[in-house]
Amino acid sequence: MSPNLAAAKRLRKELQNLERAKEQDPDIFLIPDGDNILRWTALLKGPCDTPYAEGVFQLAIDCGSDYPLSPPKIKFLTKIFHPNVHFRTGDVCLDILKKEWSPAWGVQAACRAILALLSDPDADSPLNCDAGNMIRGGDMLAYNTTARMYSVENAMFLAWPTTTATK
Amino acid sequence: MTAASDLPSISSTTILSSDNITLSAHQEQDIKTRAQIEKIENEIKANQKLTSDLIPITELSNLYLDNNATTSTTIGDGGGGGGGGVNKGFLQGCEYLATKYTNYRAIRGDGNCYYRAFLYALVENLYNSNNDPSSSSSSSELKRISDYINSSIDVVVQRGGYDRFAIETFHEEMVDLLSTITEEKDKKNTTDDDDSDSFSKIHNSLNEENGTSDYCVWYLRVITSTILKSDPDRFVHYLNDGSGSDDPTSSSTNSSFNTYYYTDVPTYCAREIDPMGKECSMVGVLALAFQITVEIEYMDGKELDIKNNNNNNNTNTLIKHSFGGRLHKEGGKDGASDGDNVKSSSALCITLLYRPGHYDILYK
């Protein structure tokens, strides 16, 4: 089996699974890009009780031909102030998207992990040092307000793409 | 946008600084380390086949003769023995191996070597098992392993807790590999062709990048995890034994970032077994020795006491351990035991060579 075919086959299975269990993750919306099933767009709802609440964040997911043996590359397209997301590039620093990746996961599980990261930032391995330093220094007010400000400025413009209003 | 007005005022400089991020020293180091590891990984990928052709065992000592720059990359995961003094023990070990074995097969040092060596040796054994005159019993070995693998997907889903959709492709690849062996064996029996030619097809498919070998390697990881999760009480006390070696130089590129202390089996499996490229530790070796016997010669660079023949028999030879096999069923006692007791317990027996951080296959 050619690698590209293997990756596409697997992602098609993931897509079927997503359609079957749509309600399982109401805060994650996933859709493949047009005719290329190796590229996906994800929308994540900022978790409640975080500075990202009410925000809708857009991410680009890029699965290489060696997917699912290798993790997908995931980037925030919506600007976000978070210790583990690169402020300019949107790169995410998350162990399961690097060395801890397991082919047992899929794009949905990866998004779930990113949502968890939004709720529970890891200040000790920061890609955004300013955000990391605020948390490490115990200045949660600075972190919360800065992150909130960027959420309000950048993440309030995308409508959640469902036919039935969830609010 | 009303929320913004509720915020306490922050000085604009705080915000602006985020736009021109300067990397911390720690972060810069981390990026450099990652880049270097990636470079080493690519080098290994370019220079080492997943599973090499047979190499005469006498050539093994060449790796330890002089400390030229290439030594460390050819050895594999462990990165070589280092200084000249260490090599004496390795050279003695090579000499000893040459008295017992004729060839070895080098496995790529990418952190998957144990699983890959296990896979290749198993496949080769199953393929060759028909050469015995008592072919009825040995071809049943192929059937036994095929049955085990065929039905394993349900066990893996139920006990291992894996999503079926995520592992199906990997399971299918493993099933296909085993049926290829059956087909090629039949072909060999009917046409009376040269053995090596028909096996070379399997050998080649096991050397495709991102192909059969990797897919089956991961399925073996899934089986290992499932066996560990099925019997956590038996394994939980052995999770933190390190990489099977107490040699401090054996810490590999793959595990250098984080070391965890594990207290439960599922976390261990998620971090150490399921991800590709994580080396197999002793507890993984124990678990994976399912249905077949795995013998491992340990060459760790300790000097052998060659003159002292009549003393304890462990001092003048490399230490060899046998794992698993049918011991599970017969004795009621499972796991590791001393080599000689289990020699005949399974018709399927693979022999591996351990060097710090790395496994290869040995041939008699």
From TrEMBL, chain A:
Gene Ontology molecular-function annotations: ATP binding; transferase activity
Pfam families per record: UQ_con
Name of protein: Ubiquitin-conjugating enzyme
Family membership: Belongs to the ubiquitin-conjugating enzyme family.
InterPro entries in alphabetical order: Ub_conjugating_enzyme, UBC, UBQ-conjugating_AS, UBQ-conjugating_enzyme/RWD
Organism in which the protein naturally occurs: Fragilariopsis cylindrus CCMP1102
Active site annotation, chain numbering: 93 (glycyl thioester intermediate)
Keyword field contains Transport: no
Keyword line: ATP-binding, Nucleotide-binding, Transferase, Ubl conjugation pathway
Domain UBC core, residue spans: 6-156
Superkingdom per UniProt: Eukaryota
TrEMBL record, chain B:
Gene3D superfamilies: Peptidase C65 Otubain, subdomain 1, Peptidase C65 Otubain, subdomain 2
Secreted in keyword set: no
Domain OTU per the UniProt entry, residue ranges: 102-364
Domain of life: Eukaryota
E.C. numbers: 3.4.19.12
Molecular function terms, GO-annotated: cysteine-type deubiquitinase activity; ubiquitin binding
Catalytic activity, reaction form: Thiol-dependent hydrolysis of ester, thioester, amide, peptide and isopeptide bonds formed by the C-terminal Gly of ubiquitin (a 76-residue protein attached to proteins as an intracellular targeting signal)
Keyword list, A-Z: Hydrolase, Protease, Thiol protease, Ubl conjugation pathway
Stored InterPro entries: OTU_dom, Papain-like_cys_pep_sf, Peptidase_C65_otubain, Peptidase_C65_otubain_sub1, Peptidase_C65_otubain_sub2
GO cellular component: a single term: nucleus
Annotated Pfam families: Peptidase_C65 (PF10275)
GO BP field: protein K48-linked deubiquitination; proteolysis
Protein name according to UniProt: ubiquitinyl hydrolase 1
